[in-house]
Specification:
The protein is mostly helical.
Length: 301
């Protein structure tokens, strides 16, 4: 194994891992507040990619400059996904807040399947080619080869993750979100609108998922109705690895998972790439079920 190959795979892992981290943040935000695994989050990522694809093609066909069309398409995808996320919470999850944990878990799986079927009805089963707006021509930086598209993905992911961490830790909305995560009843007694904060959490997580969906579609050049399933499972693995319910853990878990997958390709064929995510998940659950960083749990009297 040459050092050049290792460096290349590390860079590839950081790009992929940053997307995993972005999606994992959606899982961990919802779990932190509702103690719910939103298994429909992967399908929200898929919807974001397909909406952005349709809007981008429509705007470029109307003569809008490609880069502006892509930016408008991302904005449209974020709005649509935020609406879908809030609607899911209101219709499917809110009535089950006091139900046993198994009920919302089964509901989340049902919502995931439902969104897949809706996507099939609206977009069909075909694989769609995503327009190449940001160049994918190789850029050599010493022994490492990257593309402008990968650089944009990495910078955008880091910026969004930093923005979310600032929002949660430095703003009034973030304070309300953290208070709700600690104890909903006490937060309600302090004047916090619990339903509003939970809806905002779903909207933010879904919006980030939409951006991640566009990143995946632009990086691989295609989008389809099933693309969110495996991505969602890997992002969930990243969230568990870092310590689900912990934002820093989701970021760390996503980056580590991306590195493990891509560095592992040095030793095995690409066909076995997906195995690494689930091997890591099993190992984490066996030896450190609270995750590498661990969930911050409130002390209760």
């Amino acid at each position: 194994m040459s050092i050049d190959v290792l460096l290349q795979q590390i860079v590839n892992g950081l790009v992929v891992g940053s997307v995993y981290a972005l999606v994992a943040l959606g899982y961990t935000m919802v779990y932190g507040i509702l103690q719910l695994i939103n298994f429909a989050h992967g399908e929200i990522v898929m919807i974001g990619a397909l909406v952005a694809l349709v809007v981008t093609k429509a705007l470029t066909a109307a003569g809008i400059p490609p880069v502006l069309a892509l930016l408008l398409a991302i904005l449209a995808a974020m709005i649509v996904c935020a609406i879908v996320g809030v609607s899911i919470e209101r219709i499917a999850y809110r009535p089950l807040r006091s139900a046993p944990r198994l009920a919302p878990l089964i509901t989340a799986i049902g919502v995931s399947i439902f969104l897949q079927q809706v996507a099939i009805l609206v977009f069909g089963r075909n694989y769609f080619t995503f327009p190449e707006i940001i160049p994918k021509s190789p850029i050599n930086i010493g022994p490492i080869t990257v593309t402008a598209n990968e650089i944009v993905i990495l910078i955008t992911s880091v910026s969004l993750m930093a923005g979310l961490l600032w929002l949660v830790n430095k703003t009034k909305i973030g304070t309300a979100m953290r208070a709700t995560a600690e104890d909903q009843k006490v937060a309600g007694l302090m004047g916090i609108d619990i339903n509003k904060i939970i809806a905002i959490t779903f909207a933010i997580g879904s919006g980030l998922g939409a951006v991640a969906g566009v990143m995946v579609a632009s990086n691989y050049g295609q989008a389809h109705y099933y693309m969110g399933f495996m991505l969602g499972l890997k992002a969930f693995t990243a969230a568990v690895m870092g310590g689900i319910g912990n934002l820093w853990g989701a970021v760390a878990g996503g980056l580590i998972l991306g590195l493990v997958e891509n560095v592992g390709l040095i030793f095995v064929r690409g066909d076995y790439k997906d195995i690494f995510a689930f091997v890591v998940l099993v190992l984490v659950l066996i030896f450190r079920p609270q995750g590498l960083i661990g969930e911050k749990v409130a002390e209760r009297a």
